Amino acid sequence: GLSQYSSDPRTEWDLSAHSTREQLLEAVRNLRYKGGNTFTGLALTHVLEQNLKPDAGARLEAEKLVILLTDGKSQDDANLAAQTLKNLGIEIFAIGVKNADEAELRQVASEPLELTVYNVLDFPLLSSLVGKLTRVLCTRIKERSHKETADTPVSTGPQLSPTDLKISAVTSKSMHLAWSPPLRPPKKYRVVYYPSKGGTPKEVVLEGAVSSLQLSNLTSHTEYLVSVIPVYDSAAGDGLRGVTSTLPLSSPRSLRVSELSHNSLRLSWEAAQGATHYLVLCSAAPDGAED
User: Fold this and answer.
1) What positions does the domain Fibronectin type-III occupy (predicted)?
2) What one-character-per-residue DSSP string does the chain give?
3) pTM of the complete model
4) Which CATH architecture has domain 2-148?
5) 51-61 pLDDT, tens per residue?
């Protein structure tokens, strides 16, 4: 599977999209470069919520690996998102090109870093990594596949997934979230929210017994994407997703002009709820109009 990102991540194809090597190579040849910003944290969250799901082709029994390829320093918190993936048993390999921040790559990648972090000076040099990286990946998959663990990955379904996300009490800077918990309570919930047009994602972690949250300090008149993800000991369950827009800030109303003289006038209006200051702009009428 492959996702490409800038300020907004985009799934190019899911894990189940191509079943042969030839199909996959053809898809790579047809891939169009997506320019823009470098929101790596948002991209990693996208991979967890969209790409590593059964309906995107992820098999519960298979090892989960993410290879991050980046040519710049992240403009959001990549470490927080990466830690969430690693806590769920997903292994991250980080490959930097040109202006990538090596310290950030080492933060994001899984241990041991000598096997999971790579950095080259330019794109053509990536070809020198292919052989080694292929051997390392295949070896790691075999090692992890044969390792016996007491916990088995959780499966998705009504027992493990919350339902009925309700977004209410929406104002210009806040909203309230509530949902029905799954039959089997999770260990924790991850609530991720961010503006749909590419803002920095924010995350709140709640105990599994909690099923509501008040989001505050939001931007007015902005569409937000919200995800509520249940986290179990060995995996994440299916998340709930919602979208809603905060209200615009209230405006002053009923502007009136009175007490006109040759060099002054009085303005009055109905107050805007919550306003702390007003900016009053005054300019002469356009040429040709009466002053």
Assistant:
1) 161-250
2) -EEE-SSS-EEEE-TTS--SHHHHHHHHHT-----S---HHHHHHHIIIIISSGGGT--TTS--EEEEEESS--SS-HHHHHHHHHHTT-EEEEEEETT--HHHHHHHSPSPHHHHEEEESSGGGGGGGHHHHHHHHHHHHHHHHH---S--PPPPSTTTS-EEEEEES--SS-EEEEEEPPSS--SEEEEEEEETTTPPPEEEEEETT--EEEE-SPPTT-EEEEEEEEE-SS-B-PPEEEEEEPPPPP--EEEEEE---SS--EEEEEPPTT---------PPPTTS--
3) 0.55
4) 3-Layer(aba) Sandwich (3.40)
5) 988 888 888 77
